[in-house]
Amino acid sequence: MSISDVMPVVMPSGELREKLPAVLKRFRAEQASATPVIFGSHRKPEAVVIPFELYAQLLPAIEDLEIAAVVRERAAAGPAVPLSGIAERVGLNPADFE
């Protein structure tokens, strides 16, 4: 199975502009269960419009992904240096930071 087998039809941007009131009406009625609208120029998927209720449900997962990216970046930067070690390097008393 490929992505094209499961991907809904991509709506051209101009068509979405015309149909946006109807899309919003459907989102209000169906709330989080409403099918997202994928759109873009020349039917190339570029963006997705989803109901706000669905966005609110997805937000914790989105935040987890953002946090995971920061953790990976920091882990790749090397081992952590304690604040006392940094203080010592710049001539401060490490005991002041305990």
Tell the overall outline: elongated
Helix content percent band: 55-70%
Rg (CA only):
23 Å
Biggest sheet layout:
3 strands, mixed
Q: List the total number of helices.
A: 4
Q: Please give the number of β-strands.
A: 3
Mean pLDDT: 89
What features would you describe in this structure?
Helices cover 55% and strands 9% of the residues. It has a three-stranded mixed beta sheet, covered by helices on one side. With 98 residues, the chain is mainly alpha-helical.
Set out the fold topology:
Elements: H1 3-6, E1 11-12, H2 13-30, E2 37-40, E3 47-49, H3 52-76, H4 83-89
In short, what is this structure?
By secondary structure, the chain is mainly alpha-helical. It contains four helices and three strands, in the order H-E-H-E-E-H-H. The longest helix is centred in the middle third of the chain and has 25 residues, at 52-76.
